[in-house]
Amino acid sequence: xxxxxxxxxxxxxxxxxxxxxxxxxxxxxxxxxxxxxxxxxxxxxxxxxxxxxxxxxxxxxxxxxxxxxxxxxxxxxxxxxxxxxxxxxxxxxxx
Length: 95
Prior knowledge:
By secondary structure, the protein is mainly α. It has two domains: 2-35, no CATH class; 56-94, no CATH class. Helices cover 39% and strands 0% of the residues. The protein is built from four helices and no strands. It is elongated. The model has no long low-confidence stretch (mean pLDDT 81). One of its GO terms (cellular component) is striated muscle thin filament. Its main location: cytoplasm. One of its GO terms (molecular function) is tropomyosin binding. This is Tropomodulin 1.
């Protein structure tokens, strides 16, 4: 059934869970046919990470100075870093 649905371009008739159950089983898993209801998997909401407190300009200055105490730079979860600042980071890291 999985292969036929894929060939016909109807792979959305099965959820991922139904697909993997069909692949793992040697018997027919869904005996209700294509009229059965497909429900989406309910996932737990994941809380957003807190904003990164890194001072972008200070860290850039330290990168440019090649500060030996600066071991890691984390720019994740910092909103609205200007493109020229990112280019300055790239240029400083190439040196």
